[in-house]
Design brief:
Structural class: alpha/beta
Oligomer: single chain
Strand content: 15-25%
Bound molecules: pyridoxal-5'-phosphate
Radius of gyration: 20 Å
Amino acid sequence: MANEQIPYKIYLDEQELPKYWYNLRADMKNKPAPLLNPVTHRPMTKQDLAGVFCEELIEQELDDTTPYFAIPEEIGNFYKMYRPAPLVRAYCLEKYLQTPAKIYYKFEGNNTSGSHKLNSAIAQAYYAKKQGLLGVTTETGAGQWGTALSMACSYFDLDCKVYMVKCSYEQKPFRREVMRTYGASITPSPSTETEVGKKILAEHPGTTGSLGCAISEAVEKASKTEGYRYVLGSVLNQVMLHQSIIGLETKTAMDKYGIKPDVIIGCAGGGSNLGGLIAPFMGDRIKGKLDCQFIAVEPASCPSFTRGKFAYDYCDTGMVTPLAKMCTLGSGFIPAPSHSGGLRYHGMNSTLSQLYADGLMEARAVLQTEVFDAAVQFARVEGTLPAPESSHAIRVAIDEALKCRETGEEKTILFGLTGTGYFDMYAYEKYHDGKMSDDIPTDEELEKAFAKLPHVE
Ligand SMILES: *Cc1c(COP(=O)(O)O)cnc(C)c1O
């Protein structure tokens, strides 16, 4: 009967919104390994990072001990315009699947950028402005991060220069126009605007690009332009910190109704939405207060967790960034041009990588066509057209719910619905026409990229 009392959508009111971000690292016994200087292989210092990143974001990046960071008022006020994000009970999906499982999803697509990326974009733009910078550079894959950052920069009156992975630039011209609406300038990557872009083009003529390449270009541009810094939409621990707003809101909403998740599922590109969603729940698990399973879902075409190595690696293709210890396919690995641009990254956030190595989190790799089967089922019964990235989480949530149908278990499943798919209709078209392929890298291809991992003592 208790079920009946839970509404379709659980919203929080303004006073219930989180006032702090949560830094999961503070509660981890095994901390993620520090970033290393790519030349000396010594831990990166604030000075090492200051030429590329904003000061206050560096503080957040290097802090493994402070559990809570107050959300500045200006950022909190921006959050109020599009948050809280609803936590939805997927009654219609449950009925369609005929499962005794209870399914919930946290929907982050309710803003113009269409994804969770705005949560960190607004924070990063705020700190850049506070430092008196003129502008920021960045990369974007599918375009969600570039859009979110464009919105955040226009709000704080900062210049925004975006390097967009070439295959997405071509597949998603309207994403570009949204960014231009917010005043950003966009360059397809790899480009001839940077030294590293020219080098990558010479080595891989005709390449459709990758996030790793675009990062190298954006970093080079920021470090060579006065008054500019580089900002990143995922992978870094500061981004995961800002995204903890997702998990904190979810936990507050669930606590209100006495709901405890048994399984939490999220898609993983660089790991920021998943890390943010699970953070407070994982903190409770580490403290022995919650018994819960955590599942990261990645594309079989870019399987950083399930087939990668846990090793120090560059965060970019051009090998200009610090080294991070993470689950990685090697910075030289360029995945097949799949339709989930936001998940085409060779590495993974170092905190999530450590949790995975310690057995606190599991991972699954799924095929693109199976992801779209799930996307279409979800769109038809739940009324929201999901992003291909988010649909990775839907796939595994459906699989888990179907298992419950077999076993009769009434598990509570929570997943992150990170965004909407309105700019991904080219991908949906391929799927409907039966022209979507499932690319899986061979062991030889992976070994080739592993061979180039840096040697760190
Ligand atoms: C960028 C993106 C992702 C993946 O990024 P993470 O940092 O792993 O969260 C997932 N879903 C959507 C809609 C995105 O835009």
